[in-house]
Please model this.
Amino acid sequence: MSTAAKAAVRISMPTFIDSHAHLCDPAFDEDRDAAVQRLRDAGGIGVVCIGESIAAAERAAHLSASYPGFVFATAGVHPHDAADFDLDRDPAAIRELIARGAVAIGECGLDYHYDHSPRPMQRRAFAAQLELAKETNRPVVVHTRQADDDTAAMVAEAGAAGVRGVLHCFTGPRRVAEAALRVGWYVSFSGIVTFKKWDDDDLIRAVPDDRLLVESDSPYLAPVPNRGRRNEPAWVSFTVARVAAARGAEPDTIAAATRRNTIRLFGLSIPSESES
Ligand SMILES: [Zn+2]
Model:
């Protein structure tokens, strides 16, 4: 009886992909494999594990090798650490991680809220990684915060040169999303859209069905009803439901659309999916 009940729950679950998780963060050291299993149990069919530094990208590559066709790694340097971006060493390291199977460059971008690195250094590291994306024909995972004009300009320029990517954990403003959408990019929403203070469902509706992604950004930003706890990929299901509500769609529809979009953007090969 319990077997039948479990199967019914699994089948009724939307099958989604977490397009952005920091699974190699020390916050997962105690239960990383269990978190991957909980994602499967919740209906997840894959997760993009973000390498936000060369060291994290190495760990992401190892984790990806342990879960072929389920965990996919990226490689890049976060804007917070842009001051340490070494033009002699880091592009070569990222190229090598791409050769070993990393599906994207990033996360990289601009963060003028924290300004952990001087802004010119942030722009230099971001430009170098956009250039690498063009060279390696890989998409870019972009972090942007209070850097609207510079992000919009750099994304527009890279997009015009054929680079594709996603504005991850996006919260606005809308004109930055529009600049990215115009050059064929994607926009990803996180658990922030489940928070009580979220008041921009228009932004969620402004992204076309075929450019929409969802993500956990775990271990950060746990969605309601788990807000304040360590986040994990399985809980993207709550964000799927909230995005669906904002768009007047069924959760299954949003899970399917974001799943297809994530596979298309990152070129993921997932055994159960024939979509490309
Ligand atoms: Zn992130």
